[in-house]
Specification:
The chain is an alpha+beta fold. The protein has two domains: 4-139 and 247-354, no CATH class; 153-231, Roll (SH3 type barrels). The chain is built from eleven helices and six strands. A six-stranded antiparallel beta sheet has the order 1-2-3-4-5-6, with no helix packed on it. α3 packs across α9 (279-293) and α7 runs antiparallel to α8. It starts with a helix and ends with a helix.
């Protein structure tokens, strides 16, 4: 069982964790609410009920996304308090190593990792359909965002950042066409796409890259003002309410990978789900040395907590970049899913080994 020392640290951590969770979730909800303020005003008397349902369905998603960051920030606050009060120094003078002091920290991270996994596996999928339907029918204003579709007829993948159902216009379009051997044939990046009918889209301000059958790039880069692209992806297909794969459980993602093996986003999400379970440990390995491990850094309270926030920001930014590269086929999905964890984990282990224990 836990010793008196472990109980002392856990009693300090648990209230701090929930306080940080409420603050970060509250900030996220307020920002999201301000972005949707126009839609809520248009709803009139239904706005309150719709808002309550929407954020109730969304809250498990927020928790899953920010659990590792909240764990690091809360642990950083607790360790900062212990360090400022010289309690960590007193423990070390009593012969307790920093590794032993930090043991309950990592036990908590294991519990948080399991809690995060359970949230994604059982809670989020339960409300996924209701959340997605409410999101697309009440707030998108006939706008679909971040769509990824597989045009099997033309052996191409289309990623559309924003699609207007009324105008039938796509914004920020990326198209990856492939040879029969699955190698890249060409890629198209367009600022806009407009439906012409007869299975054709008119793309504007296009950048085209061409590849040979071995997947090697063929110079030069082609810049085209407008280009007609033939596709079986029609406005009707783009306008359908689709369940976001990121809301699916692990088993559902596994089945989706089998039914759509050529869609790199599914494979990326599947492997990201596995790598994400290590995020708590990775962030702690980086954050703890910056909070208590280096004497020069440990003198400034705001610097230490600020560094924890900065670490989280850099990690999530790198994850976002790798996800985009993996989704568009520029990076292998497995590598895209694991690269942030590998990079931050390696640096974290180095920092942890350099600590003054």
């Amino acid at each position: 069982m836990f010793s008196r020392l472990d109980n002392y640290i856990l009693k300090a951590f648990i209230p701090t964790f929930f306080m940080c969770l409420l603050i970060i979730s509250g900030i996220y909800i307020v920002v999201d609410l301000l972005q949707k303020l126009g839609e809520f005003v248009d709803m009139g008397g239904e706005a309150f009920g719709t808002g309550i349902r929407y954020y109730a369905y969304l809250f498990p998603v927020i928790i899953f996304q920010f659990f590792p960051a909240v764990t690091l920030i809360a642990m950083g606050v607790v360790l900062v308090k212990l360090s400022r009060n010289r309690e960590i120094l007193a423990m070390q003078v009593a012969g307790i190593s920093l590794y032993r002091i930090l043991l309950p920290v990592f036990i908590v991270s294991v519990v948080m990792s399991f809690a995060s996994f359970g949230d994604q596996e059982w809670l989020i999928p339960r409300f996924a359909e209701k959340l997605e339907t409410l999101r697309q029918t009440s707030f998108d204003d006939n706008i679909q965002k971040n769509l990824l579709l597989d045009d099997k007829e033309n052996n191409a993948l289309l990623r559309v950042w924003r699609y207007g159902k009324k105008t039938q216009r796509m914004q920020s379009v990326f198209i990856l066409a492939r040879y029969e051997n699955r190698k890249k044939k060409f890629t198209l990046s367009a600022e806009e796409g407009r439906w012409l009918g007869n299975n054709k889209w008119l793309l504007a301000k296009v950048v085209k890259h061409v590849y040979d059958e071995r997947g090697r790039w063929i110079a030069p880069v082609q810049q085209i003002d407008s280009l007609e692209f033939e596709s079986m992806i029609t406005p009707m297909e783009l306008g359908k309410i689709k369940l976001d794969p990121s809301l699916l459980s692990f088993e559902q993602l596994k089945e989706l990978c089998k039914t759509e093996p050529d869609n790199p986003r599914n494979s990326l999400l599947f492997h990201s789900r596995i790598s994400y379970t290590l995020t708590h440990f990775v962030l702690l390995l980086l954050g703890i040395p910056l909070v208590v491990g280096f004497e020069r850094l440990s003198k400034n309270l705001f610097l230490r907590v600020g560094l924890c926030v900065l670490i989280c920001g850099i990690f999530y930014s790198l994850t976002f970049v790798c996800s985009n590269l993996g989704t568009t086929g520029m990076l292998h999905p497995i590598l895209a899913a694991w690269l942030p964890t590998i990079i931050f984990g390696s640096v974290g282990l180095l920092f942890f080994d350099m600590m003054n224990m």
